[in-house]
Amino acid sequence: MLWTFVGYVQNQTGLQPPTPGGNGALRFLLSILPLIFFFVIAYVFLILPTQRQQKKHRQLLANLKVGDRVVTNSGIYGTIVKVGEKTFKLRVADKVVITVEKSAITGLQPAESEAEV
To answer: Which of 8, 15, 16, 69 has a CB 3.0–4.6 Å from the CB of 109, allowing a cystine?
Structure first.
């Protein structure tokens, strides 16, 4: 009954009801908006922090020099005695020198006062 009345009013006023397929570009944009929002959130919370961390690690590796005390990703503490193109030679004990990949260096060894705490 109500629809009949609405149809009658529309016919009398000359207003046309909206067509179901009208303004397809707007409908398409509104339908992909949640997907775009998801990708923006994923980029901000997942990709950007990872890129920052990788940049910081590359910068650390570029700044290492002979005499720096470092830690490898396997937990070996050592002092750099030679810097190669892709490797470091680490002294881990008296007369014990090992060769490790640059990518195996996790960070600088903490100072003695920080390590004991």
So the answer is: 69
